[in-house]
């Protein structure tokens, strides 16, 4: 496996689909939001992305079955006949931050793939770390093109959560939530990133809820949020177990670390 | 050398061969088990894998002879005419954990190669770190497909060591022991990973013995375990010498490490 | 995106253009100088370079618009009909220092591109860290070919800042400021690197001014320096915000770091 | 520049040439030995190797002239008409130890190149770190094939320095000094590695002398060693200056380091 591959299990006909991303990141906000969305909409998995840029390991799933690290594509067909369909991506991991070229490769493959289904609009979900929270987490929005601010603001009118639009320059969106928009823009796609305020370092159900309230408002959907807390707890437990086992194995495969002293390159 | 290459010294005709992996990892359990198996079965080396993803060094073997880091393929022809033959891989190292794409490349090459001999079933061996041991090390099992749990449980009936099958999700198998199963699964192969409980950080003959008891039970073989302890000691001594020399050389070829301060990317 | 790409918005006819580089580095001297030059000359952006070797993120610009990390090419047509035109490159970042091959790839692409416009001479700008400053920052010069020392010294006669030419061997110019000259030399290009003394770790308007005084003297241009201080402050503020947000996101996407202990490679 | 390139300035006709390597490593022993050999033999530079795997920087040489990092090939024609000619490689650096695939690529290119001149025998020179020295540094020898031990021992009879041949397994030779032999062996080349005992962390003229005494004994040459000490001092001074400047520049181009805490990969 020299580059990322997508295994396609079904090729649905989709109506002007919106592509929604929720991969692991700050507070697992995006991943949790995406999984909840998939569950509540009964979205259907139709493709899996495998990548040599993901961790060289398998996860142990229920009943002792192993699986490669992967990202998964789901689709949802809108029952409303004038409504738009949805493609959702979530998964086990993003490319590690030490491998920028790998990130570009994987995100490029995602965009290639969803283009085949006619995607033009992208919504990325994630967390936005803040030192403290006051009330419900707010959502930070950023768009691919300036004229979209008004477009999304109109759709978000009456949204239950506060959405922040920043006028001043500064800030960065790291990983797929950023790259999908940045690289999509170079392919005439457009979209918005919605990042929920989070204290980070936990599986943050509250931030995920805020983000989902904004996303569903934009899409004109209703979503039951009651199972979100429970899902967060399960996720946290699984994560803990994976990390425990993974850490021990990684350590024993390391080459000896040169001592941390100054030394010349030649 | 731009990608891994396999030098093939012989092309044996094998009968439905099982592919058994035992490469360095936690407690060197897999490597030790594989080497013992090779020795006791008098398995024959028939191919070597070299990779630019291995350490850029040679090892000094007996009588001052140097050799590139490598992995080695052995075969064993079952004297029982209804029995299945075996291919075993072991070697000096795995790709370092900082090079995930390298891991995928090497494991892909291994699978390509053993496919040429008709391999469909894979057994991977390794260690599984635990904080403390009670009695003989147990063996953690994981499979590529759910229906295999029953298949292997039946074969393991009466096995001298306790084999654990986990029902709940969580855990990861890092490196070749995991990837061979995960990537093999994408090629319609199947198999099991057997990880012996180990305190890690030693060359763990006890864990290797437990794993071998499970493997030989599955394969219907008998194996003398008496030489295992001795082999563990030799391995430990060689390792110590290699690391000593290697460390000094690595340090002196390092570029100067930027100081460990916070700084911007631009 | 597997390799760096240049999006070209215009193909100006340029007269024997000098290629001037000012990318982020010590004290942001080169970037600040380049941006000031662009602003004061009203240079025109005509191309953008995107690279999978840049950080896998988007920056949030004014009015919540996101953009991929990039480098930008500007041109300036000399109103003096005997004068030479200019191409300037600046941008958000350089390839990180952990990715040497990426640096060579990006700089190779830059040289390919400016060659299309007839560039033969290159001036690179940057900072040169010193422990303390006495008076105005001096400028350290280095050239591609020995005979150029005299050539540039003549052009620099009467320059307001002191330019240092070192006779003894020793020293290195890291990144694009060095590679453009080093790789350019292999393509029969020539040029000079001008590095302003800086205490580093700040956005250094004084060092940028010194460098610009030398560059404009060589080019026979006049430049108003009054806005330079103000620009430095703005840059510093934007930087601070980007880093804050970026750091949190990077941390949460990291794989678990193996513990910092000595361990064998096999 | 996507892979290493060799610029060839002359294509000498050589008589069964021996290829001698002395690149930077422990105590700079190999590099110092190679440079001394080149100087004393008046060897002629005929090719340069550039690599995207070397540091992304230029060195400032005498009179402010910059040059890419490189390795250099020299040849020496034996005036004795029955004698064998020599190719020597030395240079500014080796590929950093974090880039194993780069090491394999560069060493592969070297072997391709010297093969064009009929090289079959390789002698690599370097340092071997020891905690303390007793008397003159000894030289550790290792060979590509077992039968060469006797071959080289015979040639080394009467050598002024003690050459050590180890019978027991254990030890590693990192970098070009090891890889040239290991990869050469796969191409039917043969040779010996000669590593001088060194306390490391200095430019070690004594170890270089020991290695040269062994090399010249093997080749049947006489070499004046008086300039070796002086050369070591010069090298040390240049090194110091390069590192000082390089370090500051590297630091400022670093992306922000995620904090050193435990965290999950997903």
TrEMBL record, chains A, B, C, D:
Query: Is-annotated flag, keyword Transferase?
Result: no
User: Where does it sit, as one GO cellular component term?
Assistant: proteasome complex
Matching InterPro entries, A to Z? MJ1210-like, Proteasome_assmbl_chaperone_2, PSMG2_sf
Write out the coiled-coil annotation as residue ranges.
Answer: 218-248
Q: Which UniProt keywords apply?
A: Coiled coil, Proteasome
Which SUPFAM superfamilies does this one have?
Answer: Cgl1923-like (SSF159659)
Q: Which domain of life is it from?
A: Archaea
A Pfam family cross-referenced in the UniProt record is PAC2
List the PANTHER family hit by this protein, alphabetically: 3-ISOPROPYLMALATE DEHYDRATASE, 3-ISOPROPYLMALATE DEHYDRATASE-RELATED
Quote the protein name from its UniProt record: Proteasome assembly chaperone family protein
């Amino acid at each position: 496996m020299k580059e990322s591959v997508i295994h396609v299990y079904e090729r649905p006909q989709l109506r002007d689909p919106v592509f929604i991303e929720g991969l692991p990141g700050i507070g697992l906000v995006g991943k949790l939001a995406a999984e909840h969305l998939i569950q509540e909409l009964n979205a259907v998995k139709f493709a899996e992305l495998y990548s040599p840029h993901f961790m060289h390991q398998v996860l142990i799933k229920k009943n002792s079955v192993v699986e490669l690290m992967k990202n998964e594509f789901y689709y949802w067909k809108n029952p409303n006949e004038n409504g738009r369909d949805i493609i959702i991506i979530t998964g086990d991991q993003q490319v590690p931050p030490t491998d920028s070229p790998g990130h570009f490769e994987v995100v490029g493959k995602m965009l290639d793939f969803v283009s085949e289904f006619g995607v033009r609009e992208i919504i990325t979900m994630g967390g936005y770390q803040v030192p403290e929270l006051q009330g419900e987490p707010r959502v930070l929005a950023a768009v691919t093109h300036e004229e979209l601010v008004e477009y999304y603001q109109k759709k978000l009118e009456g949204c239950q959560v506060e959405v922040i639009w920043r006028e001043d320059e500064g800030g960065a969106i790291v990983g797929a939530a950023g790259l999908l928009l940045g690289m999509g823009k170079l392919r005439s796609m457009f979209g918005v990133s919605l990042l929920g305020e989070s204290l980070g370092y936990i599986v943050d159900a509250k931030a995920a809820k805020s983000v989902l309230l904004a996303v569903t408002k934009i899409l004109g959907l209703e979503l039951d949020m009651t199972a979100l807390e429970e899902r967060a707890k399960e996720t946290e437990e699984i994560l803990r177990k994976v990390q425990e086992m993974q850490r021990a194995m990684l350590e024993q495969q390391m080459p000896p670390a040169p001592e941390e002293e100054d030394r010349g390159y030649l």
